[in-house]
Amino acid sequence: MTDLTKTILEQMIKNIQPKIVSSPDYDISFFGVERLHPFDTRKYGRAWHTLRREYGAEIARRTIKPENEVSDDDLLLVHTPEYLQSLQESPIVARALELVMLAGVPYNLLKNRIIRPMRLATQGTMIAAQQAAVDGLVVNLSGGYHHASAAQGEGFCLFADVPVAIEKARQTGALKRDQSAIIIDLDAHQGNGHERVYLDKHGVFIFDMYNQMIFPQDEHAKTRIDYGIALNAGCAGDPYLDLLFRKLPEALDRVYNPGMAFYIAGTDITAGDALGGLKVSEEALFRRDQFVIDTLMARGIPTVVVMGGGYSRTSYRMIARMVGYIIETYGDARADESAIHDAG
Ligand SMILES: [Zn+2]
CB atoms < 10 A from the CB of 107, how many? Predict the structure, then answer.
């Protein structure tokens, strides 16, 4: 690296002001029915409160709360009107959520307890993308619904929040027409939703590293992956990190004019996860998150981090650790600035 490149990179990193997008209303609660699903639906709030305890007012100061759910107009940037219409019936929502016992539940209950938090989180990913263009690195403490496509919800995903955020960013100019969006999907499951959304479209580079032996095994969607790493069940941390460390930089070198990256940081690759089928340790997961974030920041690519899947009771702690790393590593610029102001 030349001295000039180094100076430019250091300058870019100084301009990063990490933010967190989060709302107490992200959490899903449904009279305990949510406990029948192997998903800790309150992990978002738990993660935020863990961070608040550890970092104090700094977390509140960096948090942006989405006030409204995503509008139908914004959802229509990606979804079909017929699909949005279909989500007004309990059986269809229940099927997408893989919770068939909810098929007979009155629609208004589903709407308030499940659909509303997911629409709020979709708005959160959209806000995160707008903010990332300004602040460089923004974490939405939910979202990453990577199985939802234009006309279908599945795998606990109703809304394709990342594609909606990409299309909105294009509309507002946060992402320029000639810039590529990058999706780095490291959730244990193949991200067939955004792959289907972009099947016939350019301008989005998709990197997907997933367990090929579990849901969704969507062969058609796989044809849209620009750089794929299909893992076998049981893959442990060392081979996982070895592959990622070698392949991600190689993949990023291929992206034409990168404008914004979306990192789907699913914690379901860890050994204790009920659905992911991989055996990565929590320590190796942390190194994964550090590597992806540091790589993107070193390249000066504005980045949005979304949560994706993570079904264990300790998922919230892993999320808090990653966000803590972001605050500690990239949150100093502001402290430096205020020191300068104080001195002046
Ligand atoms: Zn997953």
Answer: 14
Alpha-carbon 323 to chain mean position:
13
Tell me the pLDDT tens digit for each residue of 125-182. 999 999 999 999 999 999 999 999 999 999 989 999 999 999 999 999 999 999 999 9
Least confident of 19-33, 301-315, 328-342: 328-342
pTM value surpassing 0.90: yes
Distance of CA 204 from the midpoint of ligand 1 (Å): 21
Q: What residues does the ion ligand 1 have nearby, CB within 5 Å?
A: 187-189, 266, 268, 309
User: Cα 133 from chain centroid?
Assistant: 16
Which tokens in the block code for residue 337? Answer: 């600035």
Residues listed for the chain:
344
pLDDT of amino acid 6? 63
DSSP-assigned letter for residue 273:
-
| Cβ-contact 231, 240 below 8 angstroms | yes
Non-local (6+) Cβ contacts of 260 within 8 A are 129, 132, 133, 166, 169, 174, 175, 179, 181, 182, 301, 302, 303, 304
- The answer as to CATH 3.40.800.20 being correct for domain 16-343 is yes
147 is catalytic: yes
CA–centroid distance, 291 to ligand 1, in Å, is 20
SS (H, E, C) 304-335: EEECCCCCCCCHHHHHHHHHHHHHHHHCHHHH
Helix then strand then coil, % of the chain, to nearest 5: 50, 15, 35
List the catalytic residue out of 79, 146, 147, 189: 147
